[in-house]
User: Fold this.
Amino acid sequence: MFPLKDDIPTRRFPILTVAIIAICTLVYFGFEQGTWGLGQTGNERVVEYGAIPYEVTHPGKECEAAGEQVVCEGQPGVRGQAEEQAPTWLTVFTSMFMHGSLLHLLGNMLFLWIFGNNVEDSMGRPKFVIFYLLGGVAALAGQTLIEPNAAVPTVGASGAIAAVLGAYALLYPRARVVTVVFIVFFFTILELPALVVLGLWFVLQVLYGASDLTQPLGGGGVAYFAHIGGFIFGLLTIKLFADRAQEDYDRSRRLPVY
Assistant:
């Protein structure tokens, strides 16, 4: 399933959603120097400014790239000290604006554009910034809880965006989302309730995450538990932030009552 658009208009221009998209795009092409994928410079910056669970759970220990691997101080068989890296607390936030490939960036920004504008619209702009950043922190916490010794950098806006998806699912469950549904080698376009689209997305994250636990691939991949942590954060906290939700968003679809 791949969402294309929803049917809820915004009451004001989603300036913060657009700003996040712009920042992530500039970071990818400018700071990471990415094209279709990342080159040496991009990979080095992902290691330094990506959030590494091992650094979070081992305060004062730093990790660095060693060829195609990432090694960390204090790991078995690792001697000496790593070169000075960005502070761990800073990487918690910088990692939210970095991406590992062009497809990674495009997919995340599409989801943010479709669902972020209405969530931003449901609260004041300062609240949206706080909600988005806390969602990203909660997502990293979820991934770190499952893999506390992982030395693989976690990058991407998907954890924070997962918080936006959880918020949207609770605020606008009956919204209609135009969705591409793939069936083996064929696809069709359907208009589905947001709760169905986002609920299935969350179930897939849980299933894939459980599969990773039983058959870990190692060497990086999709941080499913970051998605799960962010989504749950959005569900649990959105009512603390949203004070301008559109209560009548589905009026046009209601049957007339005489």
Summary: The beta strands are 2-6, 63-66, 69-72, 176-183, 186-193. The radius of gyration is 19 Å. Residues 125-146 form the longest helix (22 residues). The domain at 2-243 is CATH 1.20.1540.10 (Rhomboid-like fold).
